[in-house]
Amino acid sequence: MRVQGFGVDIGGSGIKGCLVDLDKGVLDGERLRIETPQPSLPKAVCEVVSRIVTSFGWTDRIGVTFPGVMKSGVAYTSANMDKSWIGTDLAASVAEHIPGTVQTLNDADAAGIAEMRYGAGRDQRGVVLMLTFGTGIGSALFIDGVLVPNTEFGHIQVDGEDGEKRASAAAREREDLGYPHWAKRVDHYLDVLEASVWPDLIIVGGGVSKKAEKWVPLLSTRTPVVPAELQNDAGIVGAALAAHEHIGQ
Hints:
Elements: E1 4-10, E2 14-21, E3 26-27, E4 32-35, H1 42-55, E5 62-66, E6 70-71, E7 74-75, H2 90-95, E8 102-106, H3 107-118, E9 127-133, E10 137-143, E11 146-148, E12 157-158, E13 161-162, H4 163-167, H5 169-174, H6 179-197, E14 201-205, E15 225-227, H7 234-245
Parallel strand pairs: 1-5, 5-8, 9-14, 14-15
Antiparallel strand pairs: 1-2, 2-3, 2-4, 6-7, 9-10, 10-11, 12-13
């Protein structure tokens, strides 16, 4: 019998969700994406999550990602969402709007969980680092396949500022950088990060992973760098898997 789950990925610009085939690690049908309300207040965001879940007729447990540090359902940071999220119990708030129970986790952690189970990190031992390049830089760290949650490596200091300020995909677009120029910035960011973590493999995800051939071969880091295989579906898949197996925070 096929195992199904449901995942919702909350982002600063869009909220997307879908049924997930947990045997294969793929979306089970077309995902639904709704623009993130502006301002992205908790009540408005939770109502969008409810709309997405209800549209699929799903009544069982769901996984929900959030772009911030998550502990026991509560958001501790909110880099690209309204600051009123800090201290908000996301799990309890969403549960008020849907019939099932809720598992929450950091969005990059969810993407990493999916890649470790189904994608580029499958069967990888040692220290594996997943980095998602988008509005900021999300991170997920695994030691022999076990998640170390809420690492937030996008905020490590590189030349006196957060690494994501210069090396995120948003920075590339904002400054209209070509891939070779941007790759040098990513390289410098990874050099600083490698000196602290010494990973055995780095997986790069986010929307920019679709153009991996334009920049990943330009990197000169000592650690092997590979593009994510699930790309932008990784958050939804990882959220559904986390809910099914009670992984995360």
